[in-house]
Design a protein that fits this description.
There is one protein chain. The chain is mainly alpha-helical. Helices cover 77% and strands 1% of the residues. Strand 1 and strand 2 form a beta hairpin. The longest helix is centred in the C-terminal third of the chain and has 38 residues. The protein is globular and about 85 Å long. The relative contact order is 0.14.
């Protein structure tokens, strides 16, 4: 197991290095734009020269890596927050992104797994057909379409929800986990949740349907257990082995999809910061965001693989 973990971490770091290198060279090959203010442009130009931005691109990359490992310095924002460290700019935006995604995951898990269990129990009945049809529809539609739909229905037509999303502890009443905060974020939460609910439902139904037809379920019924007892004690326990790691990957999927949602609902999170960095050619902010998403995505793959062994000790990674 230790050998497998070390091997996966080594491959993850190698992949991480390749992706970061490609992102750095692509963004630095783009032309740099100076502000129209001549005095400000002169200050920025002198700062760029001091940081080695005028050196060959391979030298710039070496300076960038050296600053990260020796000073934990990921560069400076030149457009979004002028002359402010990139790490500080991103640090101010992580919490809104995490809160929205965490709420979406908490909302998606019980509904997705619950509907999947119900569809598996009602296999080939009208309830199963209705749920399966809805799942196909919801999986096929991207999250930004849901964003426009929930805005139109719940705000424009029904006027059930506010338009402003709360971001500060003072506005939320001293905690991010309050009904006031949740109600203000309900529209982006719904937009992110529909696809995840459908995915969890489909996966849960497939796993539980296979488990319910296993030989040990027939044995459990012949021993005198009712269908409900056999399902909860045996089928669900075994079906959850692949489902629980999927919940981890679902969080990563929501995190990636929230880029567009944050733009639509004006959420000052990491995703909207990423889009701003691309549009405004803010090099260091783009690089830090790329590092953030790349690291989370690669780490999630390792966590998902290892979680199988922790959930079911019979699964041993790395064995022949």
């Amino acid at each position: 197991m230790l050998k497998y973990v070390l091997k996966r971490i080594g491959l993850m770091l190698f992949t991480f290095f390749i992706i970061v290198t490609i992102c750095f060279f692509i963004i630095r090959l783009l032309p740099r734009e100076m502000p129209t203010d001549q005095n400000l442009a002169a200050v920025i130009a002198s700062r760029w020269e001091a940081l080695g931005y005028d050196e060959p691109i391979i030298v710039q990359y070496g300076i960038y890596l050296k600053n990260i490992f020796t000073k934990f310095d990921f560069g400076t924002s030149w457009k979004i927050s002028l002359m402010k460290p990139a790490l500080d700019v991103m640090g101010e935006r992580i919490l809104p992104t995490v809160i929205v995604n965490l709420y979406s995951l908490i909302f998606s898990i019980p509904f997705g797994i619950g509907l999947g269990i119900y569809a598996a129990i009602k296999k080939n009945k009208w309830q199963d057909h209705v749920i399966s049809t809805l799942v196909i529809i919801f999986v096929s539609v991207p999250s930004y379409v849901y964003a426009f739909l929930v805005q139109y229905i719940f705000y424009f037509k029904l006027r059930w929800v506010p338009t402003n999303v709360l971001y500060s502890l003072e506005e939320a009443g001293g905690s991010y986990f309050t009904p006031k905060m949740f109600s203000s974020m309900i529209l982006p939460i719904l937009a992110l949740s529909f696809g995840q609910i459908a995915g969890l439902c489909r996966f849960t139904r497939a796993e539980l349907t296979e488990t319910l037809t296993a030989d040990y379920m027939l044995l459990a019924r012949t021993k005198g257990l009712t269908k409900a007892q056999a399902t909860t004690r045996h089928a669900l326990k075994n079906a959850m082995v692949p489902i629980l790691p999927m919940i981890i990957s679902s969080f990563i999927g929501i995190l990636g999809g929230s880029m567009i949602i944050e733009q639509i609902f004006s959420i000052p999170g990491v995703g909207s910061l990423y889009m701003m960095a691309i549009n405004q050619l803010d090099y260091d902010i783009f690089m830090l965001d790329s590092i953030f998403y790349t690291f989370i995505g690669l780490s999630a793959g390792i966590v998902v693989d290892l979680s199988y062994g922790f959930i079911d000790p019979r699964i041993k990674m790395g064995q022949r």
